[in-house]
Amino acid sequence: MWYRREFTIPPAWASQRIYLHFGAVDWESTVYLNGRELGVHKGGYSTFSYDITEVLRTSSHGVQEVVVGVFDPTELADGVPVGKQRERIPGDQSILYHATSGIWRTVWLEPVPDQHIRRVDMIPDVDKKLLSATVHGSADAEGLECGFRVADAGKEVALVPGRVGKTFTVPIPEPKLWFPDSPHLYDVDVWIVNKKAAEASSAKDPAGAADHVKSYTAMRKTALGKDRNGSLRLMLNDVFIFQMGMLDQGFWPDGLYTAPTDAALAYDIQLTKQIGMNMLRKHVKVEPDRWYYHADRLGLMVWQDMPSMCGARADTWYLDCWSANRTIGAAAKANFEAELATMVEQHLSFPSIVMWVVFNEGWGQYETERVVHSVKRMDPSRLVNPASGWYDAPAGDVIDVHDYVQVRSPRPTWTRAAVLGEYGGLGHKIKGHLFNPKYAFAYKTFDTREQILAAYSGLIDNITTLMANPDTALSAAVYTELADTENEINGVITYDRKVFRYEPSALYRIHTRMIEAGKLL
């Protein structure tokens, strides 16, 4: 695929450096500006940027030409994380969806000073009442003094100096904790001290700073802990809150991976809260940053999956992807782990993410213990799910099973809590809102809304029992799914997000009653 666009730089940006940002391009992109190659990027789920300042034209009325060439092998190349995207959908096979190729997130220009901030990592430590902060900057900003201010509703909570590129701590006295019911966010200001200005700035005041950015953070702890009965549980801020969520594929009928608007991104999260759930499992896809911002501010816990790789051959592409005996080559492993590391790195500061899910149902699974340990080293502040469903390995923080029309729980161990990573899949055809009426699929279908609600309520009753039983001590359950996706008709809402399959108020009563019961354990 090839993209071409002309643009001009606003005159007000003349004295600054100009960056060209790509939200995500699937899968391999080569970017050219005014005929010069800027670079090659591989990975369909990560953000990347180029400093284009030295390549900009000053003649021809300042018209710039950007060209992007994209190669996307989808399932035909080994070691390419693709999630559920496929070039070919085999008839009624409903759990795979049409592929997204090329630019699928926003592309934008940004003017920045010579010495500028690239990223700010913020990791809360609730026990020590502090925030660990790292300000990443441009090469010539490394080691410079910076200021870091935390405020709550306009009132200063902390103001500390730091150094760009060095991790430092920020005390947060009497922290207000982030919970789904009260997602408290702190405002953050970060700036680079400019000592060359006529009136030098300082780490106490951003006025005259070389660069100044605003952000937010939250004080939130996710860990394992014992409930009143001594059962190992998933804890949020040292409190057991049953994580009641849904599988969220993140597909849209008009844009596949790309939501139509920012409001649409927020809508799926608002819908989840509306029906009384407190978690979404973002399934083998990584969303734009705005999606996680909405989860942060609205109060929704997120399990973030690493998009799985298939590595299938053209002749056996379907079976090969799920084979337990697949051979994963060294190049495929290196590529998968590079994209995994980038996913973790680029999402460290979102408080809503409480768990990383490394593998799903054996899809491209290999050397689970080693890969899980590497994620724990990258981010010791969060829980790690080694493999959701199918092939368990003695690693990570949870033991996860999948069971659909029935529900069950694994037994927790001394070191891992029990979770039901996928269940449900109940369906009911809603005429006029089917992606493909010929192949509409669910694990079990019902004729009426009354029948499917009764069946769903029965599943929740069984999950409540598994949660309360100290032998199973189930800590979380993920229903399949939030919205119908292509041929699947097992969503709480239809693919076009227009019709609820269940009455939302009924679901709210069912879910909140169960979550409240968990607080007594």
From TrEMBL:
GO biological process, one term: carbohydrate metabolic process
Example GO molecular function: hydrolase activity, hydrolyzing O-glycosyl compounds
Source organism: Symbiochloris irregularis
Pfam families in the record: Glyco_hydro_2_C, Glyco_hydro_2_N
This protein's name: Glycoside hydrolase family 2
Domain Glycoside hydrolase family 2 catalytic: 264-399
Family: Belongs to the glycosyl hydrolase 2 family.
Location of the Glycosyl hydrolases family 2 sugar binding domain: 2-110
Matches recorded under InterPro entries: Beta-gal/glucu_dom_sf, Galactose-bd-like_sf, GH, GH2_Domain-Containing, Glyco_hydro_2_cat, Glyco_hydro_2_N, Ig-like_fold
Keywords carried by this UniProt record: Glycosidase, Hydrolase
Keyword Calcium: no
